[in-house]
Structure formats: structure tokens, C-alpha cells
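task queued by scheduler; priority normal; single chain, no ligands, no partner chains; default sampling; output format set to C-alpha cells
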Amino acid sequence: MAQKKDYDEIKKTMCGMCSKSCGIDIYLKNGQIVDVRGMKEHLTTHGVVCAKARFAGELEFSKDRLTTPLLRQGNTWKKIAWAEALEIAAKKLSDIKTHWGPEALAVYLGNSVGLRDAKRFAMRFCDVYGTPNYSSVDSLCHWSRAMATDYTVGGYPVPDEANSKCIMVWGTNPFDSSVPEYKDIMTAMKKGTKLIVIDPREIPLARKADVYVPIRPQTDCALALGMIGIIIDEGLYDKEFVGQWTVGFEQLKERVKDYPPEKVAQICGVSIDVIYNAARTYAKNRPACIPQHIAIDHGINGFQTIRAIYTLASITGNIDVTGGDKLPQAYKTNNTRAAQEMSPKTIGIEKYPAFVRFTNQAQGMEFTNTLLSGKPYPIRAMILNGSNPFLTWPETAKTEEALRKLDFLMVVDLFMTKAAKMADLVFPASTFMERTELCDYGYVQGIPILAMRNKIFEPLPDTYPDWKFWLELAKAMGYKEHFPWENNEEMIDFVLQPSGITVAQLKENPAGIFYAQNKTQHYLEQGFNTPSGKIELYSERLAQYGYDPLPHHKEPLESPLSNPELSRAYPLCLLTGVRIVYYWQSSFRNLPGPAKLYPEPLVEMNDGTAKGLGIKEGDMVKVETMRGSITIKATINKYIRPDVASIPLGWEKSNVNTLTSYEGRDPITGYPAFKSLLCRISKVKAEG
């Protein structure tokens, strides 16, 4: 830790290097960051931060930051003032609305500059402008889980690892993705908590586990249903809870008969004994919880897998209990949307009606198809706020072809990304340390706490926080009367008004404020927040949309079972997007600290597979799918299935989304199949 002589001030805020918002202390000397440490008094993270936090200063003072609006003039850029840039943007957007209708504008918000308060301004702007095509990273991250759990248990369960007797880590690697969660798991294990890990990669936690299930990618739903069948057959479920608080148990019993352990073992590529061991360990050690994150979402079974996992948690009585998967209470808010009804013109509403209506957003992964086909109508303009689709959307070549069809593209970002380089107008954004934002820990960590991300620095001259971009654009469009707030703090106060909490209170309490009692079993007083008031193992809401009301497994579009011929040509299952602790999605590749520690993407391969292909550690290899190929360096170990290869996302060089596809998406949510595509790998011959 920095010594007192090394700093002259400590400022407290919430980290914005990823979505966890850990409490941090920023040590300053002469206005420069000399250290970043965890805020020990923070009510949820208690001083824990990950490696990314120490690079916050590199982000803040990066020489690569955009510092003024830029207007494209042919192949060059002209620096212009904000007033001129906003005037140009307003005229272009007004012309497009006049000639093509408001729906011809699509808006997409990513994670890199923060979705929190900006999205409220962006959504309201879209409502006032008239476009139904606001979308965001929600179209490929998190909301599949939020929707599936809402349809099942009436809320978003959050694992309570610290008080659990059994933790089943399913398709996530907390060491790289959530350090506070990892710490809670390790603390629980020291107290004797059982650990189950389900993952195609034998992550470090798996090597400490009581049960490790090396599952074939995107067969998780079959595994969950097989475990449910074992638990029912052996009478290990919570009969009293199931009888009183669930609907559809008899239908579920019939469904799991289709998934006997022998069949599930063949589907998942694991032994029958491992499946039995996992099911019994989970069911016999209660309370138990299930940490799981985005990896499960990314495939044809994503939504139904989440349903199956929380069906498993439900029949064992592990929902909304201490040590189980808690259902935190939401705080009361005012709505900031200007349009109250979902438009029938929203992109994706015909193909993914349940998802679009649940999120009240367009399905952004349909923007590409709409741009290329012009159906159901043309999209002529797009605003990308903190998003670089070339690195984060599937099938890069198709994405680029689609974006080039736009008449007008605006980008708001910190850096000159590839998306920004393609834009007509670029606006410079502010970092998380230059913004004031609301952070909710109920949704992230299951504890009903609100805290404020306090501004540490004033924004660089000629850069705006992204909420201010939307507010100023609204004013330039003549929409000022629809935006009654002068800044986001006024907007936050409006949002929080029903809760009785104010911005001033949050600023006075940097460690956070409880907005509700931190308790469980709310259902005893109010039931579950579902149409029936109970956990819905069988979902009538899904049936009304024409979807299967019970979870079921479907083979991915590309798999050894669904397409044996393709599998012979492309024998490896490709996992994409595996987290690296130093990075967040496609961010921070230009920062020297992370680049030194993990300088380039690597394809992870099993040692036996690599040996059979004549590939050694550090060799350059070609990874191919039906969409294209990339050249990348290989890293080899015994900790990954022989039939699996894994590549992280986020690098322009060796961009893994060159290999991915818009096909084979989840039929309910439209989420891409980032975890279930087939590839082949060959050694690149050295020149000369």
C-alpha cells in the first residue's frame, strides 16, 4: 500500500473496470493516481478488488483517449467543437426521420463506458425521437438469465457462497471474472463447504473440487435434467417445498424420464458415476448455491439451460434461503421511459417476441440481418455508444458488411476503435472516474445496497460523460422539454424518489446504503413474483408464446451428434470469449499494464490433441471454421477436454469473432452460439 508520504489525498468511489463495481480507494498525489486499493468498509466487497483496478490510472491518463469530436472528411478527420458536432448529428437524424421514419435509427449501447445512467437518457431519447430500436449488450449478455429466472422463480437468484454448504460452480471462472465471488468460495471451502465444478476446462477451482464434471460444451441442459431425474428417483428433493411452492412437478417428472443417466452421460461426454456424484453431493448438502454466468447463455440451449438449473435449485429447496440462491428485493423507482408501449415495429419482435417484450428493447443481434436484407424495413443510421461490434458481435465479416450499408454512423467512445474509424461522426466519452453513477448491489451480489460511483476527476476538456452526450443531443434535436433534468444526479434523484434515498445520502455514505432488509424467504410473506405466486417448473407463459414450457436439451447446430459429417472436417468444439482477468470484454488492450501481463490472444488446446497435430507450446497455428480462419499462438495443457479449443475475445489481431456465426442462436432470446461451434486447427509452417 502507498505510504502517507507518497500521497496527499484518498478519494472513494466504485471501480468501473468491469460491471462488479467493487468499492475502491484512489490514492492521489498532486492530482495523479499513485495507488488503487479496495475500500475495506464497502458493505459488499470489503476491500477486495481484481487486477484490473490497478490499471485505472492507465485508463484515465491514456494518451490514446479521444479528446475532441471528429468529423469524417473523406479518408481524413476534422476536429470540430461539440456545438458543431451536435448540430450536424441533429440535422442528419432529423433528415433520416423525415425521409425514412424514426425506426430507421438504431441505437446500441455497450459496456465500455457504462450502461448505468446513460441508458436511461439513451432510452428516453429513442422514445422521444420515435425509434423502437434501442438495444444494448443485453442482446448477448445477462438478460437471457434474467428472463429465464424470472419465468421460473420470479426474480434473479444470486448465490450466497459465504453461507453455503455446497457450491456448484457452473460454466464460470470466478478467479478471472469475479474476484469477490472467488474469495467467498475459498472462504466457504475452508469451513468444509463442498465444491462441484462443471466446465469443459479444468479451471483452477476444478482442481480443488469434490466433484469435477468435464462437460461437452452446450450440453448443460441435459446434465441438469439428468441430475434432476436422479434427485427425484432417489427421493432427495424437498418434498414439502415442492408440494407447497411449485407448480408443474408432475410434468417435470415425466420430462426427466427422457434423460436417464446413461443417455445424459453419452450426450455430455462424461461418466455416469460423475453425474450421480454431482447430483447426490448437491442434493445432500444444503443449503447449496449455483454460481453461473454468461457462458451458459451462449448457445441454442441457453434459456432452457438456465430454466433447468433453477428447476434443480427449486426442487431441492435452495431458492431464496440463506446459503442458497437468494432473491434480493428490488428498490422502488420512477420510470424514465417516455414511451410506455412496445412498438410492433421493434426489430426482433416477430422472431423473439418474449425476449423483446421482456427487455423492452430490440434484439440487437438482428440489426445485422436487417441491414443486409432491408427487412422488415431499412435501417439508415446507427449510434454506437461504448460498443465495438467488430470485436464483440458474431461473424465479423458479415457484421462489417452490414455496418457499411449505413448512411450515417455515430460512435461515442473513449478510444478510436475500429467501429469509430468507420464512423461519420465520433464523440469523445469520459472514464468511470469522470462520472457520477448509481450502483445497485442487490442485482449483482444479492445484498440490497445502493452506492454512488463518485466522480474523482473532472472530464477532460471537450469530453462528455455519455449521459451528457444524450442530454445534449436531445437539446440539439429540440427535445429539451422532454428532459426535465440538468444532469444525471437530478435524474438519479428522480429515479430513487419512491425509495426515499437521495444522491446526497449516497455521497455521504461511500460504503453504501441498505435499501431493504438483508433477509431471505420473502415468499413466506408474499409468494413468488410469478403469475401463480409459486415457482413455475412448467411455464404457462412460455407455452402461450409457443415455446416448450419445460426445459429440454437440443443439440447445437454444429456438433458431433447433430452434424457428424461437419464434425469429421471440423473435429474440435470452439469456446470463444473466455475471460482474462486483466481485461473486460474488448476493453484495455491498449493499456500497457494488461498488455505486458497478457500481451496477445492464445488458443488453449489439450496436450494430447496438440501432440497428435504436431503442435507445441508457443507454435503459431491456424484455427478455421466455416466462416473463416485466424492465425494465433497455441498454449497447451491437460486442463481442457481433448475435443475442445478455447479462445478469448477482444483483440483485433486474431479476432475470434471472425470464426463465429449468427446461426444456431437461442430460439427464445436470440443469443449467439459463442460456445458451440466446430473448428479445426493446424500448425502454421514457418516461412523459408
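post-processing summary
- The CA atoms of residues 106 and 133 lie 5 Å apart.
- The chain is about 30% helix and 20% strand.
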